[in-house]
Write a structure and sequence with these properties.
This protein is α/β, with parallel strands linked by helices. Helices cover about 30% and strands about 15% of the residues. The protein has a seven-stranded parallel β-sheet with strand order 2-1-3-4-5-6-8, with helices on both faces. It has a two-stranded antiparallel sheet with strand order 7-9. Helix 4 crosses helix 5. This is T6SS Phospholipase effector Tle1-like catalytic domain-containing protein.
Length: about 325
């Protein structure tokens, strides 16, 4: 049990969703199911913080977002406070494997926390004075110039909201705006090609390293973490990637795909691991070296449990 990872989930909505996941482990969602099948009880849930918290040089946008910032601060949903709360909860994780995972605005939050950990490291147990300066920096959105030597951290951002706000300057969130990623960081950004929001343009990160993986799936926003055909494919990909990273899965909760009941009908084909990608290109018609579709290269899909699915019945 000591070698099992610590998993930090950032959820799309607020405390009501957190309570639902805590009390209902069988809920058909990515956080609940991964919590169910991974050999660890070291899981924590946090509210995801969205892009309404961002700052802008445009006076009109700043006036528009000001009431929202006041409301979030009054209700305890302020971005800086939430990220700080999550960062403090990672105290003493220096020698542990840590997985940060989030859906939608939670995916955005997971990226920001990874950025904070990369710059500051983890909080020092029993030494509040050494962490006080870092807490002030987080509240003021000021990152240190020297990166910490952080290892064994993985990030899974599921269909994160499209924003370049980040904690500091645009396109700098988690270092994805640069050509390289921090050493030891394993990042997977999972995007759905059928995003339906007007004017939505997903972040396409141009990276020369193989540390960053953008994987596209058929489906719309929300399919990446709710019960649907695309949800099954995303879940299979994440479980396989976790296994290849040393995370232990409870095999008795998996079953061969050929044993799936026929009543699934039209869902049978989408449940395949290597399903054929039939959707058009992403909304902005842009492709980069770091962006891969699951049918482009079979080697990009983890091989463990290739013919298995999670038993959701």
């Amino acid at each position: 049990m000591s070698n099992d990872p610590y998993i930090y989930f950032f959820l799309e909505t607020g405390k009501t969703r957190v309570a639902a996941v805590e009390l209902n482990p069988d809920t058909a969602s990515i956080p609940a199911l991964i919590r169910k099948v991974v050999h660890t009880q070291k899981t924590q849930f946090f509210d995801g913080v969205g892009t309404t918290q961002r700052t802008s040089s445009n006076l009109l946008q700043r006036c528009f977002y000001f009431p929202l910032r006041v409301w979030y601060q009054a209700t305890g949903f302020d971005m800086k406070d939430k990220i700080l709360e999550a960062w403090i909860s990672t105290e003493g994780r220096q020698n542990d494997k840590v997985i940060l995972m989030g859906c939608s605005r939670g995916g955005y939050s997971a990226q920001i926390l990874a950025q904070v950990v990369n710059h500051y490291g983890y909080p020092t147990p029993g030494d509040p004075e050494s962490n006080k300066h870092l807490q002030v920096c987080i509240r003021k959105r000021i990152l240190s110039s020297t990166a910490a030597d952080v290892r064994n951290i993985s990030v899974y951002a599921l269909d994160p909201v499209g924003s370049h706000g980040g904690l500091t300057t645009p396109a700098r969130c988690l270092g994805f705006g640069s050509k390289t990623l921090p050493a030891g960081l394993r990042a997977r950004v999972i995007l759905m090609a059928g995003e339906g929001r007007i004017g939505f343009r997903p972040n396409i990160y141009d990276s020369n390293s193989n540390l960053l993986e953008q994987v596209w799936f058929d489906g719309e926003h929300g399919d990446a973490w709710c019960l649907s055909a695309s949800f099954r494919s995303v879940l299979a990909y994440i479980l396989g990637d976790m296994c290849s990273n040393g995370v232990r899965i409870k095999d008795h909760l998996l079953q061969p795909i050929q044993h799936q009941p026929r009543r699934l009908g039209f869902l049978s084909k989408p449940l395949l691991w290597q399903r054929r990608y039939s959707c058009p290109l992403p909304p902005n018609q842009v492709r980069h070296n770091s962006c891969s579709r699951i049918s482009d290269d079979n080697e990009s899909i983890p091989s463990l449990h290739e013919t298995h699915l999670l038993t959701l019945i």
